Amino acid sequence: MLSARSLFQEIVDHDDSFQLFCSIAASGESQGGWENARIAALVPEPMRALAPKITRHGADEDKHGRIFHALLRKRGLPAVPVPPETDYTMLLERRGIGLAHEKLRRDEALTERDIVVYLAHSRVTEQRASDQMRLLVRYFGDHPDLGRAVRMISDDEDNHLAYCHEELLRLAREGHGRAIQRILRESALAEIAVHRDVSLAVMDRMARLLRWPAPKAAALAAGIRATYAYERFSGWHRMVALRPPERADALGAAPAPSHGFA
């Protein structure tokens, strides 16, 4: 039976597919760590109070990258290069979503609008990360090798999402509401298209590694496109809604330790 659980299990059980999955995940998390560290260093003076939370966000992303590398080492596998068509972060940047790496490499202070763009972009991408990690916790939360890792990362992603809600609501009260809603919408519509393209590219790679029969690969591709159609029609609205988070000041508390992974 074709199910999300069975597909994930198949990917995890095969060394080559697991190696690609963890390599893609580690690369994306490491990029996120670098981006947040640069943003924290360039926060404009009137918003410097945000810098510690942005730094914490980046540190969490770096930790996640180390966790995925540790999972590879545990299986005796090296990381492999990430195929360009599966590079979620860079594909979003090419669509003009978020803050460009070229801007972040400069030693010039960001503007308040840049921080709004960063938080709105993060609210969208952290929604995706939170949803995906919750799915992995559902399937592998009790796994002897993966369980602790996916639970830890999932908890962090929920914290990141709560932080984005909280800070965007604060900025909306300060007069940025219209800009926030516009950037959220642009980011969400671009993200769902990039997520579709990356998902198709990853599944194509997995199909070759795992030698899936053509009908199985075609069914998976059809499912990815159907998910995109739903998200493009109405599902994207959940990625732009703002509400007070259950976890207040989620990035203000001390981070959870990551002993055994970093």
Concise account of the structure shown:
The chain is mainly alpha-helical and 262 residues long.
Give structural notes.
The structure is a single chain. This protein is mainly α and about 260 residues long. The model has no long low-confidence stretch (mean pLDDT about 95). The protein has helices at about 5-15, 15-40, 50-75, 90-95, 100-105, 110-140, 145-210, 215-235. The N and C termini lie far apart (about 35 Å).
Major sheet characteristics:
none
Helical fraction? over 70%
The first-to-last residue Cα distance is 37 Å
Summed over residues and divided by their number, the pLDDT gives a mean of 93
What is the ordering of alpha helices and beta strands? HHHHHHHH
Query: What does the overall shape look like?
Result: globular
Number of H/I helices:
8
- What structural class is derived from the secondary structure elements? mainly alpha
Unreliable residue runs: none
Number of strands: 0
Taking all Cα atoms into account, the compactness measure Rg is: 18 Å
Oligomer: single chain
Strand content: under 5%
